[in-house]
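Interim report to the steering committee. The following record documents the input for Asp23/Gls24 family envelope stress response protein (145 residues).
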Amino acid sequence: MAEETNIVLANRTDAQGTIEIVPEVLEVILGIAAVSIDGVYQMRGSLASTVNAWFGRTNHGKGVDLTVEDGRLTADVYVYLDYGVSVPKVALKMQETLREQLLYMTDLTLDEVNVHVLGVVPEKAEQLDPTELFADDDNSEDSEA
């Protein structure tokens, strides 16, 4: 969870005021960017985010912990990956994409992006219908006649 202090986005002399952003918004930006990477199955969730998902409310910031210390931004990203992907390649792509996306959207730079792979999720096997296991194949009888 992000800290409770707002982050000042720009300190320009030509600005007409200050621009501040809540750290939770940065977590949402990073969460959406992380899920969009090929090979990422899903982000880590909590019980609250799971219950909210049941009711149709998605929390895009789940699985991202942002810390701000002495003006340095550090993101810890907790993910599950698809089976068969190269873990280092996906993690490096995630670090690169998250840094670029945050810089593009907010002009803030991430000093660290720590990727925590919590697991690998295999593809689900196709479910067999037990009533169709021993059913006669009508097409094979027609072709023999």
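DSSP finds four helices and six strands in the chain. The committee is asked to note this result when reviewing the revised timeline.
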